[in-house]
Structure formats: structure tokens, C-alpha cells
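Chain A, query sequence.
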Amino acid sequence: MIKLKNDRFLKTIWGQPVDVTPIWIMRQAGRYLPEYRLVRQRAGDFMKLCKTPELACEVTLQPIHRFSLDAGIVFSDILTIPDAMGLGLHFIEGQGPRFEKKLRSVHDIKALGVPDPETHLGYVLETIRLVQHELDGKVPLIGFCGSPWTLATYMVEGQANKTFPMIQSMLREEPAALHVLLNLLAVAVQAHLNAQIKAGVQAVMLFDTWGGLLGDTHYRDFSLHYIQQVIAGLWRTYDEQRIPVLLFTKNGGQWLEWIAETGCDVIGVDWHVHLGDARKRVNKIALQGNMDPAILSQSPEHIQQAVQRILEEYGTGSGHVFNLGHGITPDVQPEQVAILVDAVHTLSRPYHQKGE
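Chain A, predicted structure.
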């Protein structure tokens, strides 16, 4: 068991008293950091960076070295599982992910197999082991995967798309085939997250980035059902430590009560959600979020004001992990992130007085 020097992140998830609100940032290891851009250049391309544990470890640690963050997240990508299934993932600068093979039929789907995490995704696990050796308990490390639905959107479309028309068509015309794919992905995601837990992460997160594309019934049947299936099979205790599960559905604020029923320990919310209302709706489950990433491009005063407003919305006591409502954008200056982290730690202290 790793003895943590800073365990605010885990304590607040379990509702235990903390001195200040913990903060980490989605995509905290990324293009906004000049040191990341240098390593990315050395790697040659994004997938080479992901698949070279020494380099992935280096960029995982960069924001932790630079800022007083309360958690790290392993540097990887949500699409590593489809890549391991043989779909041929690559990234085009400025355009995002592309798959050489697209899933357009039941035959395509049935040709897939569940990748073995140790064999086909071993580079992620080795990155985790390297990071934990370097961290030496400084902060907890988060592992992650994309949700089955979110992975399926890319696999059917073959690339990023704001509306993903191909999977919407499959949902309407071949729902049985889509369920086969989603069940397969649920098995793969569960296996990969458990392998990450075994490799040493202290928390795991599911990114349901495209769940918000769906209507109520389809969200329950095609996204939430499979997330629940994943969570039900995760190791919730490992090496004498409780392992929390974080779940983020972008544009999912209307479904907080349903999300709470999945068995997750933390619900991530975007900036369309009022944290105080969310806290009432999902009592006893921790919340993560939810500053608009665009605010990081504003003045220090605006950043501090936004932090103060969000802290006030949540109120006193533990149970809130400060984060952005989505990933940090490449145009943000590192100095702005330092202002954010300092503001959260400084301004949140009164909300954690003894007895609260």
C-alpha cells in the first residue's frame, strides 16, 4: 500500500474532513504546457507518446511538478481500447483521431475481440508503474477509460464528429448490433480499469464524453446501462485501499439522479450545473467540477471570482473536488492555471473549518 503525503483528493471523496478543497484538472498534462510540447516533438506523434511509457510518465508528472495539484492522471487516451482491438488509431494534427477501420455492420462488430490489458495495453500499465515510482506517494494517481458508448461513437464514425450520425443511424436501424458492441466494450473497459488498479492507480474515472448526445431513454439503455455494468465489476478495494470511481457525462446534468444509481463515488459535472442544486439532488455522493475552461483565459480577478462563486455554490464541508467542467484548452497560459490552483486552495479554507 502506498502511503500518500497528500490525500485530500481521496479524503474529500469519502466525505472526510480536509483543510482545503482539492483540485486537479482534466487534460492537465497537455499542449498548454511548453514542456509537454517539447516531449511531444521528441516523440514524433501522439500515439508514439502514449505508447512510450518513459515519455508518457514524463508528461504525466509535468503538471504535478509545476502546480500544487492534489491528484495526477495517467497520460493516455480514451481510444486506446479500440486501437488495441485492431481498428488502427492515428491522430491528424488539428483534426483529432481517425480510425483506419470503421464498424458499419454486425459482421464488423463480431470480428472484434476483447484485448488483453497486459498484452495489448501493457504500455499504459507500465506508465502507471513508472509514474507511481516517481511520485513516491506525493499525490494519488487516477486511471481512466472512455465509456462504452463514447468509445462506440468513434468506432462507428471512424473519427470525431459533433453529432456522430453513423452511430445514431445504427441505434435506430440496428440496435441489436449496437448492444453487442456496447457489451463487448463494457467487458474491455472493465478489464482495462481493473488492470490499471492492479498496476497502482488509486482512483479510476469513466469519461462519457458523448452521453449527452442521447435522449433520456436512449441514454439509460445505450450509455448508462453499460457504465453500470462496468462499475459493477470493478475492484473497489485493492492493496488495502478503497478505490473510488469517478464518472463524467458531458451535458448530463439532467440525469444526476440516474448517474448516482450506477454505483460511482464521484459525479463530474460541467458548468451548466449549479453545484448547490446538484449537491441536494445527489446527497452523499461527491461532486467534481465545474468551472468553464474559457474562464482560464480571463484576468486573474475573473478566475478568482469564478472560484469563489463555485465554492459558494457547493457550500461548506467535504465532498467537492474542484475541476474544470471539461478539459483544459491548448490556448491557456500556465500562469493562469497557477492562479486557479492557488485560488482554490486559498479561498476554500474558510469552507473547511472544524465542525463543518
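The two ends are 30 Å apart (CA to CA). The mean pLDDT is 96.
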